[in-house]
């Protein structure tokens, strides 16, 4: 094999490698783009955030109820039969959280189930063509943060139970962390809502100004 043949094969291999990298980059960009939910109206983005908050509020209330059951079961004056009954309620409430996570939708788009490949990872609000889009991250609720292995109800398996005093205390610790997680995510949604509210106020104020003075130019 002469040196020209070797150079040809090297060049051809390099060409294939560059083509592979380029295709992979385009594919990744397309995937990221497809996982971004885009809005052009502030009201629609606010409706999306409001839907998120409704689900978060219900999940938080269930977590608080779970914690009450765990604290109750941790008291030593209850019998094993009592704790078994507590645990039946406990597990059913955890399943309800899984059901909410799996079914949460906004216009047929999955909101919370991170195991759903079609779920967007962020939202983008393009108010007008002159401004950069407002990017808002979507919350990621990991099953392990809630004492679970998966959100899938068909494969339901919880790491929490209140069948014993020790297990109840361990569950309280997990639930405290879950409640902290939910508080953080709700605060993030609240901050995003507030930002959009200011954008809406600015838009409405400018629109009103234009209507009152249609022929007057404004300079900053």
From TrEMBL:
InterPro entries linked to this entry: Flagellin_N (IPR001029)
One Pfam family per UniProt: Flagellin_N
Domain Flagellin N-terminal: 43-114
Keywords per UniProt: Cell projection, Cilium, Flagellum, Membrane, Transmembrane, Transmembrane helix
Membrane-spanning segments: 6-26
Keyword Transmembrane (UniProt): yes
GO molecular function list: structural molecule activity
Protein name per its UniProtKB record: Flagellin N-terminal domain protein
